[in-house]
Amino acid sequence: MRIFIIVATAALLLTISNNAIACRCFAPPPATSFQRAELVFEGELIREERLERGIAQTLRVLKQQKGEPQNEVVIVVRITDCDYFFESGKVYLVYAVRQENQLRTGLCSNNKELGYSGIKATAGNAPDVAAILESNRLWAEAINYGDAAALDRLFAEDMIVTAGDGTIRDKAGEIKDAVAAPDPAFQWTSRFTTEDVRVTVYETAAVVTGLAKWGFKYKGNEVNNERRYTHTYVKLKDKWRIVAQQTSSNLYKSP
């Protein structure tokens, strides 16, 4: 397996605020980007690692359009106003050029979101499935950024949560657990991501199952977690809300 390093030249979103600094560049026509690129592929984010400066994002190559065949590509996202930040659960078309003996990509490289990834099976109306998948993405994003307001919008008022240890808590308890006050001894080592997502819609109700992964360091101890989760959604006033959540340890792992 050959792995290349791509250093992105465009904006890492450090918060979920929409007040991002605009990148001052102009994307050429896609045909020009294709001609200039050394590597063009469709890929999905499969893992991340925090670095001293930035984040290393590894993409699985799903379909190669140009360049020497690859299985995985590692993208190092630097903190500049033109970084391109890949999100879990999505498939991207990526254009990479070689600069200073490294492959680079950015906001003005004509990279494009192609859709959602990690979905093993879905059933139901396409717009509803898409809305629920977006909710699943926002849930993970809210946990990464400690956004209590976002979780409040996603959770129904009478939400019930069954934790992995059997503890039962309500909406307020789940938000408090997910976005507790920062502890100086706590440090994220890998983002909270979801994969193996399955969606089934039953008119005004839906069930989502998936695998959540995240890593952290606490008081010198490094922990990498995997949890299977089930979300039950109900459509309330034309908005999909999570009414129940259950998590369990991922004891079974595919070989």
Estimated share of beta-strand residues: over 45%
CATH class of the largest domain: Alpha Beta
Largest sheet: 7 strands, mixed
Q: Mean pLDDT score, rounded?
A: 82
| Radius of gyration using CA atoms only | 19 Å
Give the CATH topology of the largest domain: Nuclear Transport Factor 2, Chain: A
Structural commentary:
With 255 residues, the protein is α+β, with helices and mostly antiparallel strands. It has two domains: 114 residues, OB fold (Dihydrolipoamide Acetyltransferase, E2P), CATH 2.40.50.120; 131 residues, Nuclear Transport Factor 2, Chain: A. Helix content is 16%, strand content 51%. It has a seven-stranded mixed β-sheet. The chain is globular, with a radius of gyration of 19 Å. About 5% of the residues have low confidence.
How do the helices and strands line up, and which of them pair or pack?
Elements: E1 3-8, H1 30-36, E2 39-50, E3 55-66, E4 72-77, E5 90-99, E6 102-105, E7 112-116, E8 119-123, H2 126-145, H3 148-154, E9 155-162, E10 168-170, H4 171-178, E11 186-202, E12 205-218, E13 221-236, E14 239-249
Parallel strand pairs: 1-4, 1-6, 8-11, 9-14
Antiparallel strand pairs: 2-3, 2-5, 3-4, 5-6, 5-7, 9-10, 11-12, 12-13, 13-14
Helix pairs in contact: 2-3
Task: Throw out a few tags for this protein.
255 residues, alpha+beta, OB fold (Dihydrolipoamide Acetyltransferase, E2P), Nuclear Transport Factor 2, Chain: A, 2 domains, 7-stranded mixed β-sheet, 6-stranded mixed β-barrel, 4 helices, 14 strands, globular
